[in-house]
């Protein structure tokens, strides 16, 4: 039987998940309804495909009018919680983009709503379901390194200017890059370790690399540094520094303008780091930066126990296991990625389909989304207050 899904916020991320993951697994899935503020633009983009879709400008109207098997939420981040609560009140299976909440009030509201919600929810945390993370978790559970004692995780983002040259630069929407970016990494670390953070201490740097005194509203093509600025779309500048496909030729707002913000009014971090004390006593450190480029890109973790060390990186798609007390290091090269995020996106699509067809619980549940958002908000607060903080999990 064909599945009818509704979409709240039909942006690039959700449309990509539907086309490349969900419909790639089951081409009978039909987008029956869309709620968005850009309906006319979406109709033009979809062309003939839009003829079978009903468009709404109000999510409640869509949810009350349509017979839907599931709903995907891909709005801007500040709307994730209120839209999710609307879907949860109808007890429909849901695919929810991260971060699931952007402040403590939203976290508490989402947690309270979850007590009455029995349908499966798939939170967009693909890294935990990538072959690398699953293999690392398997090795730890098999005892390959003994008890996990120490985590060192890194994310050197080679496309990091995306957080400063488009809507992501709006701190009011993103609430910073702990919440936007580290939410993925905190989640997979908790998943692989089978543990949850108890206390964090964090720091961040802002407006040292990105931001500055360039005029508000300035775009590259109107700037007198168009041919020399490394962030400019001039014929080779960004092409040299960014990975292919990351808008190398597109004009964009200035990454060094006052629009970026500062410590006083808030802005995204150039870099940020945190120490994590887990409930079991496990210690971890995570660090991210947004100005590394080209081959300096790295995303992965080193997981250390008394008996061995596991190291993996999504850019190389390789996991290495070193046994400390034997003369052996084993490398695992994962197969070609199917779907984005190291293959995890396809797994999320699979979970969403099973959630609808079989009411199968998600491997990336709402509780994980709430936990990650709460930890990331606590990290930001710790960095602002420069003190250790306990993670205030709701009862």
In short:
Helices cover 31% and strands 22% of the residues.
Q: What structural category characterises the helix and strand content?
A: alpha/beta
Q: What number of structural domains do the residues give? A: 2
Strand order of the largest sheet: 14-13-12-11-7-10-9-8-15
CATH superfamily of the largest domain: Dihydrodipicolinate Reductase, domain 2
Mean pLDDT: 94
**SS elements, strand count:** 15
The radius of gyration is 21 Å
Return the CATH class of the largest domain: Alpha Beta
Determine the fraction of residues in helical runs and give it as a percent range: 25-40%
Please tally the helical runs, counting DSSP H or I stretches of 4 or more residues. Answer: 11
Instruction: State the shape.
Output: globular
What percentage of the residues does DSSP assign to strands (E)? 15-25%
Low-confidence stretches: none
- Can you summarize the main beta sheet? 9 strands, mixed
Distance N to C terminus = 40 Å
As for the CATH topology of the largest domain, it is Dihydrodipicolinate Reductase, domain 2
What's the CATH architecture name of the largest domain? 2-Layer Sandwich
Order of helices and strands: EHEHEHEHEHEHEHHEHEEEEEEHHE
SSE blueprint and pairings:
Elements (H helix, E strand, L loop, with lengths): L3 E5 L3 H14 L4 E6 L3 H8 L7 E3 L2 H7 L4 E4 L6 H10 L4 E3 L7 H11 L6 E3 L7 H11 L6 E9 L14 H4 L2 H17 L3 E9 L31 H5 L29 E8 L4 E7 L8 E8 L2 E6 L4 E6 L4 E6 L10 H15 L7 H20 L3 E2 L5
Parallel strand pairs: 1-2, 1-4, 2-3, 4-5, 5-6, 7-10
Antiparallel strand pairs: 7-11, 8-9, 8-15, 9-10, 11-12, 12-13, 13-14
């Amino acid at each position: 039987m064909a599945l009818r899904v509704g979409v709240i916020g039909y942006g690039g991320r959700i449309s990509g998940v539907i086309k490349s993951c969900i419909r790639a697994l089951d081409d009978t899935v039909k987008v029956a309804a869309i709620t968005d503020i850009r309906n006319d633009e979406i109709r033009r983009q979809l062309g003939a495909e839009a003829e079978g879709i009903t468009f709404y400008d109000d999510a409640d109207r869509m949810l009350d009018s349509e017979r839907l098997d599931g709903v995907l939420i891909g709005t801007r981040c500040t709307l994730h919680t209120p839209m999710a609560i609307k879907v949860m009140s109808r007890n429909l299976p849901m695919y929810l983009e991260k971060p699931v909440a952007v402040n403590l009030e939203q976290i508490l509201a989402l947690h309270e709503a979850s007590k009455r919600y029995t349908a499966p929810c798939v939170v967009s945390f693909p890294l935990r379901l990538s072959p690398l993370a699953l293999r690392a978790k398997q090795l730890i559970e098999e005892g390959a390194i003994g008890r996990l004692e120490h985590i060192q995780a890194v994310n050197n983002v080679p496309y990091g200017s995306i957080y400063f040259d488009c809507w992501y630069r709006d701190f009011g929407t993103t609430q910073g890059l702990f919440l936007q970016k580290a939410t993925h990494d905190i989640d997979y670390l908790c998943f692989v370790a089978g543990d949850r953070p108890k206390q964090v201490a964090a720091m961040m740097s802002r407006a040292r690399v990105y931001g500055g005194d360039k005029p508000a509203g300035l775009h590259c093509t109107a700037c007198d540094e168009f041919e020399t600025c490394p962030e400019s779309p001039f014929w080779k500048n960004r092409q040299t520094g960014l990975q292919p496909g990351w808008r190398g030729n597109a004009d964009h707002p200035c990454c060094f303008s006052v629009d970026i913000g500062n410590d006083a009014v808030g802005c995204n971090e150039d870099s940020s780091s945190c120490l994590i004390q887990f409930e079991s006593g496990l210690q971890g450190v995570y660090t991210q930066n947004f100005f590394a480029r080209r081959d300096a890109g790295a995303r992965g973790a080193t997981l250390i126990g008394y008996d061995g060390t596991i190291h993996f990186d999504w850019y190389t798609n390789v996991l290495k296991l070193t046994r400390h007390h034997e003369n052996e290091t084993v490398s695992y090269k994962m197969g070609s990625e199917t779907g984005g995020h190291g293959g995890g996106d396809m797994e999320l699509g699979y979970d969403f389909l099973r959630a609808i067809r079989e009411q199968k619980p998600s491997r990336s549940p709402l509780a994980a989304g709430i936990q990650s958002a709460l930890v990331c908000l606590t990290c930001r607060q710790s960095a602002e207050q420069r003190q250790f903080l306990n993670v205030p999990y709701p009862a």
